[in-house]
């Protein structure tokens, strides 16, 4: 089973002090946000947003998030992940800041480029093609400083960066191995190709992650799937972990046959009997790090009437 890590949170007073400190860096538009979950805090400044969850912090452009910067709470370098579904990355693709090539060899740890902290525009340029795309760097510096403060203090002098592309297929296979320990595969064809038994999906706004749905069991009215988030590859973070978190902890198997692709929500349904007069339906919303239980609609009476009650986690 995946290891779970817990990190202490910065006090509200410290967070406010930090927010005011970052304001002095670059003018208006700085905001520290309260999150809907107790172990996620968020921040945005100009064109960048940052969030810190239970195990790591993540930074993204606020529009068309095709790249991510992440760093684990146990330290280590910042990890740069490019979303290859959004940015066509190959050996000819160049990353540039303000017109100058930014050398970021795949898998090699380097000093955090000053150009990223001081520049205005990051672009990705395709050889032999006039088309380019990119992101404003306005607000990145404040976001980096804010995130590092949540993790215990800035690391300005030894700040490092590594660009790395996860092996999504290998991580998905590892998730299938974990699912194999808890799924009974009742009602499923266990000899079916892997592509029919599991699916890898992107997670909107989180290019550092993929969601893997492994079919787990199938009955007359209901189904179950073991759903995992895979990535990023950071110190102190298991790269394969249960995607859903309820009030009492991780939930590895959800009552669903499939999860909608490219979605920030997971809906589950469990019918109590065939006529459908008793059931449990749940909605799970992505908070940037996990899918959290948003509400549960329940009718347990099986009395020929459909009168559900909504339960919302505290």
Short description:
The protein is α+β, with helices and mostly antiparallel strands and 314 residues long.
Question: Structural class, from secondary structure content?
Answer: alpha+beta
Read across the widest sheet, the strand sequence of neighbours is 1-2-3-4-5-6-12-9
Oligomer class: single chain
Largest sheet: 8 strands, mixed
Ends apart, CA distance between termini: 27 Å
Question: Helix count, per DSSP?
Answer: 5
Q: What form results from the Cα inertia axes?
A: elongated
The percent range for strand residues is 35-45%
Mean pLDDT: 85
Radius of gyration: 21 Å
Order of helices and strands: HEEEEEEEEEHEEHEHHEEEEEEEEEEE
- Report the strand count: 23
Unreliable sequence segments: 1-30
Residues in helix, %: 10-25%
Task: Note down, in words, how this protein is organized.
It is a single chain. This protein has five helices and 23 strands. It is of the alpha+beta class. β7 and β8 form a beta hairpin.
Please render the helix and strand layout as text.
Layout: H1 12-26, E1 30-34, E2 41-45, E3 48-52, E4 56-61, E5 67-72, E6 75-82, E7 94-97, E8 100-101, E9 109-111, H2 114-118, E10 121-125, E11 132-136, H3 140-150, E12 160-163, H4 168-180, H5 194-197, E13 198-202, E14 210-218, E15 223-230, E16 240-242, E17 244-246, E18 249-251, E19 253-254, E20 265-271, E21 279-286, E22 291-299, E23 309-311
Parallel strand pairs: 6-12, 17-22
Antiparallel strand pairs: 1-2, 2-3, 3-4, 4-5, 5-6, 7-8, 7-10, 9-12, 10-11, 13-14, 14-15, 15-16, 15-19, 17-18, 20-21, 21-22, 22-23
């Amino acid at each position: 089973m995946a290891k779970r890590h817990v990190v202490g949170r910065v006090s509200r007073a410290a967070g406010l002090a930090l927010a005011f400190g970052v304001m002095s860096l670059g003018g208006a538009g700085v905001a520290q946000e309260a999150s809907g979950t107790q172990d996620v805090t968020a921040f945005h400044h100009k064109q960048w947003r940052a969030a810190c969850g239970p195990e790591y912090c993540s930074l993204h452009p606020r529009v068309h998030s095709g790249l991510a910067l992440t760093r684990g709470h146990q330290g280590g370098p910042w990890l740069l992940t490019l979303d290859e579904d959004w940015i066509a990355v190959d050996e000819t693709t160049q990353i540039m800041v303000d017109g100058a090539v930014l050398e970021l060899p795949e898998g090699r740890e380097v000093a955090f480029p000053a150009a990223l902290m001081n520049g205005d525009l990051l672009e990705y340029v395709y050889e032999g093609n006039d088309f380019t795309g990119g992101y404003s760097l306005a607000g990145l510096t404040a976001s980096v400083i804010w995130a590092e403060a949540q993790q215990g203090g800035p690391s300005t002098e030894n700040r490092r960066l590594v660009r790395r592309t996860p092996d999504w297929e290998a991580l998905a296979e590892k998730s299938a191995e974990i699912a194999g320990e808890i799924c009974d595969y009742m009602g499923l064809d266990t000899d079916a190709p892997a592509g029919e038994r599991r699916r890898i999906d992107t997670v909107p706004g989180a290019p550092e992650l993929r969601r893997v749905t492994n079919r787990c069991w199938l009955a007359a009215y209901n189904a179950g799937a073991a759903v995992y988030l895979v990535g990023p590859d950071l110190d102190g973070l298991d790269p394969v972990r249960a995607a859903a978190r309820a009030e009492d902890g991780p939930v590895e198997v959800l009552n669903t046959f499939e999860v909608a692709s490219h979605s920030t929500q997971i809906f589950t349904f469990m019918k109590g009997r065939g006529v459908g007069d008793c059931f449990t339906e749940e909605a799970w919303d992505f908070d940037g790090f996990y899918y959290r239980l948003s509400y549960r609609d329940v009718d347990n009476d099986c009395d020929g009437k459909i009168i559900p009650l909504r339960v919302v986690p505290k």
